[in-house]
Amino acid sequence: MRGFRRRRSPAAAPSPTRSRLAGSGVVAFGMLGRGIALMVVAIVVAAFDPELALGGALVYAAAYTVELALSLTAYYSGSPER
To answer: I need a labelling partner for 77 at 20 to 30 A (CA). Which of 4, 31, 49, 67 fits?
Structure first.
């Protein structure tokens, strides 16, 4: 067994594609966790102070709308890559 080498299977070999794919999964779970945490906080606030919850929901909706508008503007105003 002295000359025996353990071969790595092609499926387990690290590659740039695998690392990007793994990184995107981490980002997705992070975004999911952030959304769940935000909803838990919003529900707790709504249970104690409905007016504050309404204000928070309006601010969140406005911020999301502005972020979406800026993202779409940046996407469609950029130069095409070749």
So the answer is: 31
Q: What is the DSSP string of 20-70?
A: HHHHHHHHHHHHHHHHHHHHHHHHHHHHH-HHHHHHHHHHHHHHHHHHHHH
**Amino acid identity of 49?**
D
Residue 9 lies in a domain: no
Domain-located, residue 29? yes
Residue that has been written with the tokens 């911020």 in this structure? 63
61 Rama class: left (phi>0) / alpha (psi -120 to 50) / beta? alpha
Answering whether pTM is above 0.85, one says: no
Query: 31-53 pLDDT, tens per residue?
Result: 899 889 988 998 999 899 999 98
Q: Residue 18: which H helix or E strand, with range?
A: helix 16-48
Task: Measure the CA–CA gap between 8 and 23, rounded to whole angstroms.
Answer: 22
